[in-house]
Each structure stands twice: as C-alpha cells, then as structure tokens.
C-alpha cells in the first residue's frame, strides 16, 4: 500500500488525482496566507524575537521531512567540539512526551533513553554525542538559557528555520538536491513549509543528497538568494565494510525511504526485500515479527533499517541481526571551509554581544 504522503505530494497526479487533491490545494492557500502573516508580524516586530547571550546556529529546511538536518547537526556539534568549543543542541522532539516540557539529556541521563519520551532524533543525538547536552522541548529560548547555565558556548537548533521566536546568528538551510524548489507546492498539497522565497533569510545553503551534478538546483538557489554560501552534501556510509555483500531485508519509517534504499544499494548491500512506512512510524511487535518472517522467507542474512528507526524499536529480539545503516555527511572536501564560516560568524556575534 502506498504511503499517504507519496500519493498527496506526487507532482503529476493526473486529472482524477487533481480532483481528489483539490481540498488540500484549497487548504494550502489558507496555510500560505497564515505563514505570510506570521513572518510579517516578526519582521514588523509585532511579534518579538528574543536573543540569547551565546551564538545560535539553526540547522533547518524549507520542506517537510528529511533533508539531512539531524546528521548535519550531529556532524556540526562533533566538529565544533574538536575545535575546542562547547556546543549544545536544542531540539523540539515532535510528538514526544518531552515536547511540552524541557528535558535535558546530559551525561547521566543518556542510559536507556526512550524515544517515546524524547523522540527518535534526540535519542540518536544522545547516542552519537556523548558529551554534548541535548535539550528537548518546544521552548527554544528556555532551552538556550539552560544551555548557557551549563556552560555552552554555542547553541545549535535542530529544525530551527521556522522558529522565529529565537534570533539566530546563522541560518543553515538544507535543500534536497534531487528536487527543484520551484516545482514544490505548499503544505498540505506539497512539502513546502513556507514559500521558496523565504530562502532569502538563509546565510548558508546545503544542497543535500548531491550524488549528481545538481547545477540546475544551484542556479535556482542563487536566484532565490544571491548572498548565501552554497555547499553540496552527500552521505557516507560509515559501516559499509561490515555490511557490504550482505543480503538484507530493509525497512524505514522516514520522510524518504527510497533514498535510504538507494544508499544501502550503493554501499554494495543486496536488498532482497524492502518495506516503507510513514515518517516517525511507531512499529508494533506484530509488524516487526511479520517483517522478520518475510526476511527469512527471502533468505536475508540481516534486517536493515535507519539509525532513527532503530532508536524507536524496543523489546524486539529477532533471530536475524537487526542493524542500522550508519551515515555521516560528506561535503565533497569542503568540511573545513563550512566549519570555519560557522565559527567565524559565531565569534563575530560574541564580540558584538
């Protein structure tokens, strides 16, 4: 059965599809107007943005779902630590119990974290970043204040481009390399969270998943924002040596499972079966056991999923190894250039504070 979002966001739905999607198109007009009104209210200071004492770097995007925000935020936090800085991460934790509170994942609370409590992205960050505080909750200003008290020198906002309540020193925006923004539609008819023209607020643009040339995308981004620095990014599979040549039954509940399957195939993993679920899908034990049954029927050696999906799976002990495809960003050799731009801007902000 196709996922609802794949059906809804399909760019060429045909006549019957257009008719079926017409209510969503009408709602998109209302949504666009609401977004424009909110943005204007902040620009005219009818709604107030608040500033922290430490620099704030947002890692966000324009579209719903995955464009590489969380892996990029993890990479940036690790890289800043290696440069001697003390970062902290603020993440909302959509749909988690901690969203309405302020939950602090420090060194002591990293053991036995539950994705139901803090969300899968926060769980993944806590696993990968052993010494970086991760603050979960919708109040990003309160999270930033707490980070300051904990000694953080810079705050990273995971998925912060639309969070205008908090002033940012750097807006880093990730755009999927395979899609032109001009062809995307506004939510709920499409994936855009705000019009493509909003990209003019960005300081740095990351064209993610750039396995191909992508020059048409670069030209469009330069037209939308001539002043932003543009970088290309793809994923590197960290555990390819362990997984290459294995027969795998792959499954994923993320925004774009097809890209996960492609990445696994490029890592020389033989996919003997695959299954896609909606983003942030919560797996039932029956679903997991059924997939193990299918995997065995297809002579799979392993069950393979994403790191985010694995963070949501608890209490399932299949007979086959259940492994995650571990990925990290690859900026085509421009990692240091990107990092130094972030550090320079952060230091400039600190000196002007």
Describe the fold and architecture:
The structure is a single chain. The chain folds into three domains: 4-43, no CATH class; 56-234 and 331-352, Rossmann fold, CATH 3.40.50.300; 239-325, Rossmann fold (3-Layer(aba) Sandwich). Helix content is 38%, strand content 19%. It contains twelve helices and 14 strands. It has helices at residues 4-8, 14-43, 69-82, 115-118, 120-128, 140-149, 215-224, 240-243, 257-266, 285-297, 307-312, 335-352, and strands at 56-61, 87-91, 103-105, 134-136, 154-158, 170-176, 204-208, 229-232, 234-237, 247-252, 270-276, 302-306, 322-325, 327-330. The strands form three sheets. An eight-stranded mixed sheet has the order 3-4-2-5-1-6-7-8, sandwiched between helices. It has a four-stranded parallel sheet with strand order 11-10-12-13, sandwiched between helices. It has a two-stranded antiparallel sheet with strand order 9-14. It is globular, with a radius of gyration of 20 Å.
């Amino acid at each position: 059965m196709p996922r609802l979002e794949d059906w809804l966001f399909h760019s060429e739905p045909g006549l019957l599809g257009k008719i079926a999607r017409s209510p969503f198109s009408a709602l998109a007009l209302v949504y666009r107007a609401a977004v424009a009104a909110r943005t204007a209210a902040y620009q005219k200071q009818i709604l107030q943005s608040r500033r922290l004492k430490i620099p704030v770097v947002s890692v966000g995007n324009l579209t719903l779902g995955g464009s590489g925000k969380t892996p990029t935020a993890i990479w940036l936090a690790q890289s800043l630590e290696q440069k001697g800085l003390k970062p902290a991460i603020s993440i909302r934790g959509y749909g988690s119990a901690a969203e309405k509170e302020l939950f602090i994942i420090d060194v002591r609370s990293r053991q036995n974290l539950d994705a139901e409590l803090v969300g899968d992205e926060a769980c993944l960050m806590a696993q990968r970043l052993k010494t970086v505080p991760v603050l979960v909750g919708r109040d990003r200003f309160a999270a930033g204040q707490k980070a300051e008290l904990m000694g953080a020198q810079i705050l990273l906002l995971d998925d912060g481009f639309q969070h205008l309540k908090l002033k940012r020193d750097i807006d880093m925006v990730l755009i999927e390399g395979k899609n032109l923004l001009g062809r995307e539609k506004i939510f709920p008819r499409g994936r855009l969270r705000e019009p493509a023209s909003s990209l003019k607020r960005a300081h740095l643009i990351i064209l993610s998943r750039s396995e191909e040339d992508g020059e048409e995308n670069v030209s469009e981004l330069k037209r939308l924002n001539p002043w932003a620095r543009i970088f290309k990014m793809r994923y590197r599979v960290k555990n390819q040596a362990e997984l290459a040549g294995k027969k795998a039954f792959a499954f994923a509940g993320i925004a774009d499972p097809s890209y996960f399957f492609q990445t696994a195939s490029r890592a020389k993993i033989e996919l003997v079966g695959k299954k896609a679920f909606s983003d942030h899908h919560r797996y039932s034990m029956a679903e997991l056991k059924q997939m193990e049954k299918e995997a065995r029927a297809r002579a799979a050696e392993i069950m393979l999923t994403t790191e985010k999906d694995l963070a949501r799976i608890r209490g399932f002990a299949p007979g086959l190894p259940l492994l995650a495809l571990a990925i990290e960003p690859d900026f085509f050799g421009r990692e240091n250039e990107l990092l130094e731009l972030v550090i320079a801007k952060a230091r400039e902000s600190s000196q002007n504070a």
